[in-house]
Amino acid sequence: MLLMISSQGDSLHSQPSLRFGRAPYFIQYDLNSDEWAAYQNKAVMESGGAGVVAAQFLSDHETDVALSGRFGPNAHQALSAAGIQMQTFDGQYETVQDVINGYKSGNLTGVS
Hints:
Blueprint: E1 2-7, E2 25-30, E3 36-40, H1 50-60, E4 65-68, H2 73-81, E5 85-88, H3 96-104, E6 109-111
Parallel strand pairs: 1-4, 4-5
Antiparallel strand pairs: 1-2, 2-3, 5-6
Helix pairs in contact: 1-2
């Protein structure tokens, strides 16, 4: 199962981003292998529709679950259409690794 976490930086020790479409990076984490990769979010430069562009990126990378502080309505619609689950976290998580641990523990909030 592949997670994609919105992040301020390019490592598991980076601060998670509370914004989805305009997050500087996405950290992809494979729950089966514990392997991860960082991707710069090209949607940051979009003048509009950053959430939809970011959602397409996650779909292209076969993401199962998107984790972010919040999802805008257009991103929510695009992720839902792609069959990508969404869960949110708040500012209590200091690192991307903390968010991953929160997901594994079932402490994040599902988005319907």
